[in-house]
Amino acid sequence: MEALGERIRGAMGLERMAAIAKRYRTWTVLFALVTTFAGVALIVDRPKGTILESFALPLVAIGGAVFAWAVWPGSRPPVQGTASLASRFLQRVTFDGRLIRFFPAIGVGMILADVAYNLTVSATPAFQTEDTIVLLSAVAFLGYRLVPGRFARERDFIFLFFVWINLILVVPLLLARLYYTDFEKSVDIYSWVALAPQTSAVLSLVGVPNSVHAVSGSTAPGLSFTPQHIPVEVTIVISTACSGIYSFGIFAAAFIAFVLTESESFSRRIWLLLALGLLAAYVANVLRMVVIVLVGFYTDSAQTDLQNMLVAHSYAGWLIFLGWLALFWGVLFRTLFREHAIHEIISSRATSVGFEPRCGICSSLLTPVVPATRCACGAYYHKSCFMTWARCPTCGRTTNPNGTLVSGGS
Prior knowledge:
Elements: H1 2-23, H2 25-44, H3 56-71, H4 85-93, H5 103-120, H6 129-143, H7 152-180, H8 189-194, H9 196-205, E1 210-214, E2 221-225, E3 234-237, H10 245-262, H11 268-299, H12 307-336, H13 338-351, E4 372-374, E5 380-382, H14 383-386
Antiparallel strand pairs: 1-2, 2-3, 4-5
């Protein structure tokens, strides 16, 4: 009986959590995205030798499961509107969908090509970060046709994410290796051009004397500085693996895929949004390197022997990436795409055949017997359901304590 009682209490607890997640669906999706990309970041650019390495797959599994639940089609009719930029782009590059039937063959070809590259050209047959990205993209090609049509938007988002992460991280590296005819070493062009000089400039602005220079035996730049409590100059090598370029690539690919799947046409606002997102992600990446150096400059001593900086290198970069991801996507969900979400809701209600108005909180049918209220954005609610809410869950308009809307009809 005790075991049965524990199971019942556990089930009730899960039901309460599900109800809360459903009530705050936008934040549930945000949590799922951050958790999923946290796991992806650890898989692609995991800090080896740290406890974080073992969290990669669980984070992807938890985030993916929550995301799938949050976007699972419910009783509401699908939105009928103009095709998204993502769907139109895929239609064009696949010749009106005729190439989609070859996606499984393309996925198998990517796997075989990656293995052949490692065995014949690469310095080691072991799978590196770029191999992981290629293999994940191959899985996206293999599974594309298996996803039901009602999940088209989510399917296109994931597919475009892996396409873009290859275009941002893998393709430039291969082209650089071809240009320099160097297939055995990582070509650290990004660190030389877009990271080390900028990190050095910011450190100089905050009062940390430093210099950027070549390092014997390495293609990556070195940044030298003298910690306050260690009277010896220290040089850190900013290689591709530790530059944060992978975290930047993950964010940039996800952001571009999101804009393409959520937008119906390119406008000045969309271009501005893309430019702002990519620029801010780049600034966050430079900040990551600055923080790592500052930790070593101010806290390390002869006793710690740069251990504080090494810990920051292993953990701070990933934490800064997560913090930045949560902040930016939170602002994006809360403000920039609110108008788009409201437009979709109104469009779905205006164009759906046989639409039956339902409460936006409990999803039950609205009837004349039970008092209800309607927001200016088009959302309907039972007043009894709405009593505990301070704002409209759809658009954020404020409400009175009795459950009526300050802005909107009742």
